[in-house]
Amino acid sequence: PAAAARPAAPAPAAAESAVPARRKLSYKDQRELEQLPARIDQLENAVAELAASMNEAAFFQQVPAAIVAANQRLAALQAELEQAYARWAELEG
Known about the structure:
- By secondary structure, the protein is mainly alpha-helical.
- It has helices at residues 2-5, 12-17, 27-54, 64-92.
- It is elongated, with a radius of gyration of 25 Å.
């Protein structure tokens, strides 16, 4: 009866298994992970600069081909930024 009054302590193995184990990164992946924040910052700045220039009235006074090229460049930068964020999440596990 005395043992039934005592609450059971949580098993340490159960608490440890709740946190997923991080896999060991290769040297190449570790270097990539270290460089991703700077690359993401660079891409975010490029997107912001291009978007700012596209928001100016003079932007639309260019030839249509330049406007299309700028839109394509912006889409490519945004896609690259999304890929960089996805890769960062993948490497951090």
